[in-house]
Amino acid sequence: MLNSVRQLIARRKPVRRIARVPDGERWYVVGDVHGRNDLFTALIEGIEDDDAAAAPATTTVVLLGDLVDRGPDSAGVVRAARAWAERRSVRFLAGNHEEMFLDSFDDRETLRHFLRHGGRETLLSYGLPPEDYQRMRIEDVQEAMQALVPAADRAFLASFEEYIVAGDYAFVHAGIDPARPLDQQRRSDMLWIRERFLRHEEPLSHVIVHGHTIFDDVIDTQHRIGIDTGAFKTGRLTALVLEGETRRRIQAIASDGGAITIEKGGHS
Questions:
Q1: 37-53 helix and 74-87 helix, angle to the nearest 10 degrees
Q2: CA torsion angle for 207, 221, 35, 174 (degrees, to 10)?
Q3: Residues 78-90 pLDDT 10s
Q4: What is the Cα–Cα distance from 147 to 126, expressed in whole angstroms?
Q5: pTM for the structure as a whole
Q6: 147 domain-assigned
Q7: What is the rounded distance in angstroms from the CA atom of residue 260 to the CA atom of residue 268?
Q8: Per the domain annotation, does 31 fall within a domain?
Q9: How far apart are CA 252 and CA 38, in angstroms?
Q10: How many structural domains are present in the chain?
Q11: The domain that contains 174 carries what CATH number?
């Protein structure tokens, strides 16, 4: 009887899916930053130090989207991201919060939704005084954001990709529709999907690395890896490092006192 139970548990335990990125490549995939520029700049330094200490490789960084909203310094995150991309290969995926932000410049209903989900903090980070914001009507907010947000930042956010493939992995902000091939995905699903993707338990064409849904720590179901560790409220920003068949992580973690440390682990 005991052996039968042990065998049942063993069958339920997920088997490590062997997936790899192309030889000679190293990928750093960063979860949702959401305005935490303090964690982001610390993680940039941690990734740069890690890459410098590792064997030579063609290195690419991918940001999974949702750079903006909720945290206190979205404008700083955008500046840091643009500057990082000038000195190394960094690719950016569109998140639902970038979509809301950009649509808000022309659509007031979207702007109302944006402001309720962290957009207020984004506009304050671009220099909108909080006391002015409190007095503004929705049309005033829209007029102010058009004046405050640089056109170059808007163009940068609008340039983000929808998904990226690296060997056996695919990177996307929210996930994919399990019923559709990767090259036939809808943008709305890639930026917004949740339950239909998260509940899916069968292997997909690629191991999907995604953000969008917050987990206490990195979650690896073998067919998907979720790396949104809720930086804006937990103080933990995660990068997944992929090289050959290995997976590991680098995290920027803020203490209660505000100090930020870099932690590494999760070799597999």
A1: 20
A2: 60
A3: 999 999 999 999 9
A4: 10
A5: 0.93
A6: no
A7: 25
A8: yes
A9: 9
A10: 1
A11: 3.60.21.10
